[in-house]
Each structure stands twice: as structure tokens, then as C-alpha cells.
Amino acid sequence: MAKYNYKCSKCDSTELYVLSVVNFLTFKSNNYFDNKKCKNCGDMAEFVRIFDPTSSKISRDKEQILAEVKEDARKIVEKVKSGNTRAILDIYGDNI
User: Domain range spanning residue 67?
Assistant: First the structure.
């Protein structure tokens, strides 16, 4: 699980979120941090991400890695089935 630090734009208090990468991307795409209630000041505020020196390290478990690999493989199969010549050449080379 990755750790994400956010700061309230009104009172500067920080909150730590421990989320999977998938959950973080879902929260971010749903604008979860744009207008949320601060636990410290109680106001609705935008939360801004804070980057620590260690914030770039993300660990994934075997299930997350396997899910990503399966999704990538599914996308490649779809490209080949649709006749995407570039994908076919990337996989099989010029000698098909």
C-alpha cells in the first residue's frame, strides 16, 4: 500500500492516507480531495498533496501486480484481434 500525505488548504493540518494505487486513482478521478471536510478545522476545503522524500516509493503486492499484468495482456489481445498491425508486428516481428 502506498502512503499519500495531504494538507488542508484552510488550516494546514495534514492527513495521511494509506491506499492501494487503484483506490488512490479512483479517489483522484472522483475529485475526492477537491472539497472534503477537514478533521481538524471542520471546514470543507481543498486538500493538496504533499510530497515527502519517501513519497515516491510505492509497494504493490502479488495480487496487484498480477491484476495489472492480466489487464495489459487483455489490452494486447484486443489490439491483435482488431487487426492492429503495429501490435501484431511488435509481438511476432516482421517474419509472419
Answer: 60-96
Sole residue written with cell 502506498: 2
Contacts of 6 (CB under 8 A, 6+ apart): 14, 15, 16, 17, 33, 47, 48, 49, 50
Picking from 64, 65, 51, 68, the residue whose alpha carbon sits closest to that of residue 3 is 51
pLDDT bracket for residue 69 (50, 70, 90): very high
Q: Alpha carbon 76 to chain centroid distance?
A: 21
Q: Are residues 2 and 40 in the same domain?
A: yes
User: How many degrees, rounded to 5, is the angle at CA 32 between CA 65 and CA 15?
Assistant: 85
Predicted TM-score (pTM) of the model is 0.51
23 and 50 in a single domain? The answer is yes
- The reply to whether 70 and 85 lie within a common domain is yes
One domain for residues 31 and 70? no
DSSP string, 24-52: HHHHHHTTTTTSEE-TTT--EE-EEEE--
